[in-house]
Amino acid sequence: MKIKYNYQFFSKFITFEGIDGSGKSTHIKYVIELLKKFNINVIFTREPGGTPLGEVLRNLLLNKLMHPETETLLMFAARREHISRVIKPALKKGICVISDRFTDSSFAYQGGGRRILRNKIKILEKWVHPNIKPDLTLLFDLPLEVAKNRLNIIKSLDKFESKKNDFFHSVRMEYLRLAKKFPMRFRIINSNESIINIENQLQKFLLYFLRENNIQ
């Protein structure tokens, strides 16, 4: 990899999405290290969570049963805190933000999986962050049976991870719908590949993204 310039001011927002078991979390470190090779300042965060209050809400959201609309509202409450305390300040300083999930997850899990009306989620999206959108979304996609086999290795599953196949099918279909609707933002990663092949996919997409933003 040929690196010609240092870009310390790179105010971009990159999100990782995918169904549970897709392997996205495994590859976040690789992406961060790749960006750092260009001397890009990077921070990592996650949803739900990312702030002290967000982490409290995360524990509730992942482990407590609740009405789907309550779940959706709490997701956006955590997101509002996350944006104001982490994402927005970092972007203003020229720091690249890497987030494990963002609002696409709400459309996929609460919309696709929980059957919350899409228009309700859009209203919350416009209210909570009308001017904050990911610049790049890496969607890790794979067959449901592969994802479930990976989850079966985990001893303790949260309430989402323990859902049945029809739930994850709906979540996956919503993700693919979003990727089709926003092709300029989404890049689909075939995560049913070896680690080295997935890293090659990520490198290809990221280098193209960097060139689009005048980093060579």
Automatic annotation (TrEMBL):
CDD domains according to UniProt: TMPK
Database matches in InterPro entries: P-loop_NTPase (IPR027417), Thymidylate_kin-like_dom (IPR039430), Thymidylate_kin_CS (IPR018095), Thymidylate_kinase (IPR018094)
One Pfam family hit: Thymidylate_kin
GO molecular function: ATP binding; dTMP kinase activity
Catalytic function, reaction form: dTMP + ATP = dTDP + ADP
GO terms under cellular component: cytosol
The entry's keywords: ATP-binding, Kinase, Nucleotide biosynthesis, Nucleotide-binding, Transferase
SUPFAM superfamilies hit by this protein: P-loop containing nucleoside triphosphate hydrolases
A biological process term (GO) from this entry: dTDP biosynthetic process
Enzyme class: transferase
Membrane-spanning ranges: none
Positions of ATP binding: 18-25
EC numbers on record: 2.7.4.9
Annotated Thymidylate kinase-like domain residues: 16-201
Family listed: Belongs to the thymidylate kinase family.
Role summary: Phosphorylation of dTMP to form dTDP in both de novo and salvage pathways of dTTP synthesis.
Listed name of the protein: Thymidylate kinase
Species: Candidatus Profftella armatura
